[in-house]
């Protein structure tokens, strides 16, 4: 087989089958006894509030993490191909990548120093 | 003839000097208080300078441009700094140089304090305002001289447009109650006309080879001769701008407003000199650059000119505002000038040129004297005046004198040019002449009617109500108005002298102009 | 499968994205529309890269992803700050500036 | 695809050869992997409980089957038979999809993990690698699938429409993406030396030297990140029982819960497998054995054995750590990820790149220094040794600084915050008690003598124990 | 597979860009490490020196290029030729004065929110203001934007252009949201700018993809050579070119892609508005010129109609809408739309003089814009207690300003008449040159419309002059309502430079025009 992605599809199909099948099985097999309290949100036993805290919003801090993550994710995107063809890209690639790393480090340092990484 | 004068860069000096003085007055605080004397001395000096220059002018060769200076200015655009005057240019420069000191004298106390200024600052504020006024007038003088001296189309255009700015401020800052609207109207009309001209200026660049010196008027003749349509478009782009400037029907409407709202001094310069730029441009630019188109368009233009003459006269009769009346009379007069330019005979052209000078002087006298009256009476409405010849005798006399000059009484400045124009028109076509004569009649009507309304009749009693536009108005004391003061008389004297001179002995001026007229009339003649 | 199909798909995605930007009033949704458009362009690039038999298309797509990521960061920063102020990410609520 | 990737594939010398495989072979392999994973999870459940019990001086499950070995099977079956509750506030579709995503992504990683070298299937003469498939970009694929797996958690937490799951999901997301960075960066240095992203090639590149030794810091970073990645103690904040009930899974029950649970354990196996493949030589025999017994132990089905052993070595590590360490506080945890792991990984990457650069692109070849027979391996070991020493020294320095502080425990904050104030911290300043911020310290409590370290995991385990055994 | 060949990089030729971006990076580090006390001073000095140095570098490269001819840089991604360098120089000049305005602190505070992320009106924000926090990130952001802009005119492939587009846009999106006062307005402007900007860059990108698909390359020259080849994919080619042009037209604010302009100009901090209005336009037009002049010649027939319509619409809509505005910034915004239309004439002309004339126009426009917006920052409102508050932007608030502050009013008038294109100002020569190029290119109907639009446009410029000089001030002497604040001097310097520049460009434009005349040909 020349296309390495076909086995992946097979694997994916089987995994999906298993995942969905499991749910279906439990839906079929499991008992169904309705109880109002059962379908309420769990809040440590007290009467649940109508909306979850923050109405489904994420605290701001997580956005900062997400943004920082994106920066580094980009870095990784470029590092991987470079690492693999390290010898071919030779000194030019090495220097370019060091420059790139430096440029990624600068905002990182900035964020660090300005408290963007402090979680409080 | 003293040759050492001829070598000086006269025009440049005359152009630069007033601007420099203006800048000094405006920027250097101590000079502000003495702004008026300084301005007067400067303008007088310029007048003397013009006189000296004129003395060096080669009258026998009036058709040739003299005192020329040519330097590269914006080489990539082909624009040069080129100045020089021929007979007509010299005359108009002299007119400008004459009127500026007159206006300054006449308007010595014209600049008032604006309302809402605290008493302790009033002195400074007044000095500042006066300095501003004088500075603007001086800048305007520079530009007026420059525009008549420009021998480069681009330079001409630039000054043509730049002149708007000081006038705009003169009207807008120092004018009457409706000055803002008037200033805006003036600027927008002129700017629109100017921008249309800009398109033409650019197009001329591409119709010639487009190298350095492209815009020298000396190098520009018969643009796009092989493409009559294009030439007509180019001609129109210039003509429209000039028509706006020299208010011709139907683009004249800005003038009455501007003239009525501006101070008399500003109006004088505006109508007396600035508007002449329009007709000047028609002669020195429209005719030589686009002879074919000018000849083709001439009949239409003459019709417009006749409409201007008649319409201006009729409307002038109907005016109640003294300044507006004079402004509309100017529309009529400009109709004469334009007609003289385009009928295509040498006689008419000479007449038109002389008319420009003569009209400049008479209209100045009318505006200034009317200004003296309206400032005394605090109203421009003729209906609020009556019998003023008994109260202000000298004023009435001089007004009548100027008015008679305006209606072309023989022996006064208006007669010779009007006669020449009529003659030239008849030469071209009898119908032109007939209509023009109607204009002459009308001019007699509006001047004399105005005189009758304002200066004759009984002097109204103080406090007697006057029916004005349906509303009763308490008329201020008319019997107590003062006659012309010494300063005001001195302002009028030079004008009166020139009026007399032009009426009695126009030969020297005609000599200056006729050569030029020969040249331009030939162009139109050969083209048609 | 013909490569044209990919182009058609990317065209559809691009249209959906631009319609989302133009019609949806929620800033985040509009923003996602923009991202969809960028990805549609990426798909086009990769498809053409395949068509031309070179890797340029894919490389460009890389750069586009980076740019898109940077845009996400900036966009989120702006949207979040507005959201905190107004408690809403609707574009219509942001109408202090008359249009 | 072929035309484009041909050059890349052609360069791969050590890649596994799948040209014999047919679709049916792939299907068989895939099924085998699924079965392997399910069995491993069942085993892992037992394994974990037994080991932890050992640590805690208990027995652990010992009733069902030998050593309680089949205890996990009834546990799992029970979950299927439980009622499938969908909470009222849930966003139904996403609520349902989330666990499937989780388990799907968990299963998919093993698709590119080499279990062993080429083997002959017993009873046939069919030769095939013990690996479902291999991509030229397997490592990227693994990272991608891992990233996709986050969706399962975050969607599950969000769609429950409940507070605790949401908080757990948010935490989990932040945690996974934070630690994924350290992980990815650690992997780059391996790619650099191995020159490929294909798992089988990476394994082959470790014929002489496991990268765990040559690239020790990267390995360490990877391991730590792996703990964060799979939400295991000491980084199990998304489902910290004490704080968030059960995190994102709070509202899940029955099979849906089972999938999350399963996914979590498979993910442990996943990171173990990746660590094995990338750092520990994959299916290759430990090199002392090769030296002792010759090449034979490195071939055929032996590889499978080594692979399993190595995985379970890591699994043991997970359990060991769980039994030993306490949960981090969230800020400490994030700070550790961002301010320690990522910088270390970056610096290490820079060093490796520089070293490789000098080696490849200049005439100066550090590996060729032949003083007393120093080889590449020796030099790398040397560097690793130096780094270890540096690490130790760095570890010592803050200790020395903290000595002047009378209360030694106060300086434990890993945030390194410099906001120390001279004022004593008053926990009740705001009217209600608040915990100290980093750098602040609690005044000695009157009840201090009575406070002991709570053995949270131990308590959990015992309750768990009683329930399942009963 | 081809062996990888490292591109030759001529670092010297890249020096202007490198200097600016390097300073930007250093600026970020300054934010991280330099103590707050001296941070602002450090940033200002760095930025000003950086832009100055870049200007010097550009001048040096100009000399080199004049001597050695244009070159391709970085494996052809950039071009170092006369138009690029001239555009960069113009850009840097405008950026320099813009930067001075940005750095200025009139009445003791700069124009930026001290804590941009704080909720407007919150206690935290008030506290930050009281504590005298200053926003210094604006300097690195500005430098990054300038860096992107510098690449813009030189970019010779679509990908570089796209990335430069983003590098210049992203900082501007942020800068637009940093206004110290009217925070909500500012944030909203930022959001709108961002959404529409991202939207347009998506179009640009799709255009890039299509052109790549058509020609197999994103190089301008490759696309240009592929143009004549009729391969049945002409539609794709045309769509690609149009989409790319749409992306660029958005940046210059041409109708119908102008809707962001008034909102963003109004909401953004005024110094940023000035910087953005001038420099973005310069960069975007320079790029548009290169793209159009290199790629379009083969497509002229197809593109002309579209561009003509856009140019006409831009001039008319900009002018007409500017007339009805009562807010200074919005008025200037619409006027900038109209100006974009005028500049488009030079682009459409597709004659060599079009390049130089557009660049000249942009210089004149840029100087006047930065100067005008710089002055806007100084005219402030005053509340009942006599405290100076935000900028007085309503037209009526400018009434009678000429009386009290003649110098300021005269400078503003100068900029306005330059906008209006009245002679003896740079605006006039610029208009002249551009209209000239358009006529040379045969677009005389456009010129006629442009002339009419200019005339109409004069109305709203003149109206402001009327207000300043001819109208009585609304307030009393004791409480003028509108006041002019003292600056630190930087804005004054910037305004004077702009004013002098405007006059010089109007009176003796010869040398600059000569310089521009060298920049009439793009290196393919």
TrEMBL record, chain B:
Positions of the NADH:quinone oxidoreductase/Mrp antiporter transmembrane domain: 150-443
Any one cellular-component term (Gene Ontology): membrane
Transmembrane segments: 6-28, 40-59, 79-105, 126-148, 154-174, 186-206, 230-248, 269-290, 296-318, 325-343, 349-373, 394-416, 428-449, 490-507
Record GO biological process: ATP synthesis coupled electron transport; electron transport coupled proton transport
Subcellular location: Endomembrane system; Membrane
Family matches, as InterPro entries: NADH_Q_OxRdtase_chainM/4, NADH_UbQ_OxRdtase, ND/Mrp_TM
Broad class of where this protein is predominantly found: membrane
EC number: 1.6.5.11
Alphabetical list of Pfam families matching this protein: Proton_antipo_M (PF00361)
Group of enzyme by EC: oxidoreductase
Membrane topology: Multi-pass membrane protein
GO molecular function per UniProt: NADH dehydrogenase (ubiquinone) activity; NADH dehydrogenase activity; ubiquinone binding
Keyword list, A-Z: Membrane, Oxidoreductase, Transmembrane, Transmembrane helix
Family: Belongs to the complex I subunit 4 family.
Name of the protein in its database record: NADH-quinone oxidoreductase subunit M
Source organism per UniProt: Occultella aeris
Taxonomic path: Bacteria, Bacillati, Actinomycetota, Actinomycetes, Micrococcales
Encoding gene (name): nuoM
UniProtKB/TrEMBL annotation, chain C:
GO cellular component, one term: NADH dehydrogenase complex
Reaction catalyzed: a quinone + NADH + 5 H(+)(in) = a quinol + NAD(+) + 4 H(+)(out)
Keywords on record: Cell membrane, Membrane, NAD, Oxidoreductase, Quinone, Translocase, Transmembrane, Transmembrane helix, Transport
Keyword Nucleus belongs to the record: no
Top-level division of the source organism's lineage: Bacteria
TM stretches of this protein: 6-22, 29-48, 60-83
GO biological process, one term: ATP synthesis coupled electron transport
InterPro entries: NADH_UbQ_OxRdtase_chain4L/K, NUOK/Mnh_C1-like
Pfam families: Oxidored_q2
Subcellular localization(s) per the UniProt record: Cell membrane; Membrane
GO molecular function, one term: quinone binding
Membrane topology: Multi-pass membrane protein
Function: NDH-1 shuttles electrons from NADH, via FMN and iron-sulfur (Fe-S) centers, to quinones in the respiratory chain. The immediate electron acceptor for the enzyme in this species is believed to be a menaquinone. Couples the redox reaction to proton translocation (for every two electrons transferred, four hydrogen ions are translocated across the cytoplasmic membrane), and thus conserves the redox energy in a proton gradient.
Family affiliation: Belongs to the complex I subunit 4L family.
Subunit structure: NDH-1 is composed of 14 different subunits. Subunits NuoA, H, J, K, L, M, N constitute the membrane sector of the complex.
HAMAP family given in the database record: NDH1_NuoK
Protein name: NADH-quinone oxidoreductase subunit K
TrEMBL record, chain D:
Catalytic activity annotation: a quinone + NADH + 5 H(+)(in) = a quinol + NAD(+) + 4 H(+)(out)
Stretches assigned to coiled coil: none
Transmembrane segments: 23-47, 93-115, 135-155, 176-197, 209-228, 258-281, 301-321, 333-355, 375-397
Location (main, coarse): membrane
Tagged with keyword Nucleus: no
GO biological process: one example: aerobic respiration
Superkingdom to which the source organism belongs: Bacteria
Compartments where found: Cell membrane; Membrane
Membrane topology value: Multi-pass membrane protein
InterPro entries per the UniProt record, alphabetical: NADH_UbQ_OxRdtase_su1/FPO, NADH_UbQ_OxRdtase_su1_CS
Biased composition (Acidic residues): 458-470
Keyword terms, alphabetized: Cell membrane, Membrane, NAD, Oxidoreductase, Quinone, Translocase, Transmembrane, Transmembrane helix, Ubiquinone
Gene Ontology cellular-component terms listed: plasma membrane
EC number in record: 7.1.1.-
Start and end residues of each stretch annotated as Disordered: 404-470
Any one GO molecular function term: oxidoreductase activity, acting on NAD(P)H, quinone or similar compound as acceptor
Family classification: Belongs to the complex I subunit 1 family.
Protein task: NDH-1 shuttles electrons from NADH, via FMN and iron-sulfur (Fe-S) centers, to quinones in the respiratory chain. The immediate electron acceptor for the enzyme in this species is believed to be ubiquinone. Couples the redox reaction to proton translocation (for every two electrons transferred, four hydrogen ions are translocated across the cytoplasmic membrane), and thus conserves the redox energy in a proton gradient. This subunit may bind ubiquinone.
Full protein name: NADH-quinone oxidoreductase subunit H
Organism whose genome encodes this protein: Occultella aeris
Gene name, Swiss-Prot/TrEMBL: nqo8
TrEMBL record, chain E:
A Pfam family matched in the record: Proton_antipo_M
Subcellular location, principal: membrane
Keywords: Cell membrane, Membrane, NAD, Oxidoreductase, Quinone, Translocase, Transmembrane, Transmembrane helix, Transport
This protein's GO CC annotations: endomembrane system; plasma membrane
Keyword tRNA-binding assigned: no
GO molecular function: NADH dehydrogenase (quinone) (non-electrogenic) activity; NADH dehydrogenase (ubiquinone) activity; quinone binding
HAMAP family in the cross-refs: NDH1_NuoN_1
GO BP: ATP synthesis coupled electron transport
Domain NADH:quinone oxidoreductase/Mrp antiporter transmembrane, residue spans: 155-454
Gene behind the chain: nuoN
Subunit structure: NDH-1 is composed of 14 different subunits. Subunits NuoA, H, J, K, L, M, N constitute the membrane sector of the complex.
Localization annotation: Cell membrane; Endomembrane system; Membrane
EC number assigned by the record: 7.1.1.-
Catalyses which reaction(s): a quinone + NADH + 5 H(+)(in) = a quinol + NAD(+) + 4 H(+)(out)
Family in the record: Belongs to the complex I subunit 2 family.
NAD as UniProt keyword: yes
Role according to the record: NDH-1 shuttles electrons from NADH, via FMN and iron-sulfur (Fe-S) centers, to quinones in the respiratory chain. The immediate electron acceptor for the enzyme in this species is believed to be a menaquinone. Couples the redox reaction to proton translocation (for every two electrons transferred, four hydrogen ions are translocated across the cytoplasmic membrane), and thus conserves the redox energy in a proton gradient.
Protein name as catalogued: NADH-quinone oxidoreductase subunit N
Membrane topology according to the record: Multi-pass membrane protein
Regions that span the bilayer: 12-32, 44-64, 84-103, 138-155, 161-179, 191-215, 235-260, 272-293, 305-324, 331-352, 358-379, 407-430, 442-470, 490-513
